Recover the amino acids of this structure.
């Protein structure tokens, strides 16, 4: 059977880009995979790993003749990259992204998409704390959600083709308005990362506890809740700067809930603590029942070694 896309170009080859390349190759979704990144070292490593068929430092060269282009770069870079590649995009091509923020990406990319090229933003809700081309694995998207956030006037056929692509990678696909997407992800993804960064920072700054003790005696709670703090700082800097309003709203709500727990602890209000914990345990169980958890203890934590 002929692959659904003739040429897939991936701009940016970190965890998500390399995982798309591996999964698309395994599923035979493109006749040719083209890789582009601005770092010669990263491009050379992608070549060593065999992630693509052709490799370019110049993103504009990489998109020539591509019928599917996916930007796998930090959200702050999406606008400049779209402007750079615009003159080289083929008529009828689908241009997408994988950013964790959608409204800002739509605003920054839309003005640069040429007439006759289909812009269909997307966000695969999958990832680990690792980054770089070595971090990718083909199973990353299996049974994860991918949200497609069409813009006004998006071509229905282009949306369907992109949805089929992500479905073939193993994702569950759903459409969502970009603004709603950003509010949902602010609480389910962005705020947890901010809390993890802050928790590690608090432990680092304690005068009565040494860094070596924090590392040595990290129990499951600290270890598991701070895993996110190992995530790519550039990517998350851009996420918070580009989804500021939604993140601040959710942070305010979180602060109110935290203050209520603080009062309960201070005043020994066991009943209030129990009710809060029981309510949140119910939500956590629903997450597991919804299939958004896995029994594999190292899921998303395994970094493939060269040659593995």
């Amino acid at each position: 059977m002929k692959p659904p896309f003739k040429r897939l170009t991936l701009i940016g080859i970190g965890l998500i880009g390399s995982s798309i390349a591996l999964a698309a190759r395994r599923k035979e979704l493109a006749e040719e995979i083209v890789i582009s990144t601005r770092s010669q070292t990263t491009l050379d490593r992608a070549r060593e790993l065999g992630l693509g068929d052709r490799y370019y430092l110049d993103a504009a060269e990489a998109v020539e003749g591509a019928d599917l282009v996916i930007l796998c770069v930090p959200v702050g870079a999406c606008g400049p990259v779209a402007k750079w590649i615009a003159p080289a995009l083929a008529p009828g091509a689908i241009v997408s992204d994988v950013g964790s923020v959608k409204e800002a990406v739509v605003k920054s990319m839309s003005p640069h998409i040429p007439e006759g090229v289909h812009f269909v933003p997307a966000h695969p809700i999958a990832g680990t704390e690792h980054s770089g081309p070595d971090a990718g694995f083909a199973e990353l998207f299996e049974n994860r959600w991918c949200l497609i956030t069409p813009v006004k006037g998006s071509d229905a056929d282009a949306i369907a083709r992109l949805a089929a692509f992500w479905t073939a990678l193993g994702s569950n696909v759903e459409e969502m308005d970009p603004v709603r997407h950003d509010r949902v992800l602010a609480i389910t993804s962005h705020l947890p990362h901010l809390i993890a960064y802050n928790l590690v920072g608090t432990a680092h700054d304690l005068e009565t506890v040494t860094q070596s003790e924090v590392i040595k005696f990290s129990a499951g709670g600290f270890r598991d809740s701070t895993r996110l703090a190992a995530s790519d700082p550039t990517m998350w800097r851009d996420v918070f700067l580009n989804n500021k309003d939604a993140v601040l709203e959710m942070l305010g709500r979180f602060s109110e809930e935290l203050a209520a727990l603080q009062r309960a602890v201070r005043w020994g209000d066991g009943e209030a603590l129990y009710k809060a914990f029981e309510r949140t345990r119910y939500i956590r169980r629903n997450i597991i029942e919804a299939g958004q958890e896995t029994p594999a203890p190292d899921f998303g934590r395994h970094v493939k070694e060269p040659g593995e």
The CA atoms of residues 35 and 55 lie 5 Å apart. The two ends are 29 Å apart (CA to CA). The longest strand covers residues 5-11. Residues 178-205 form the longest helix (28 residues).
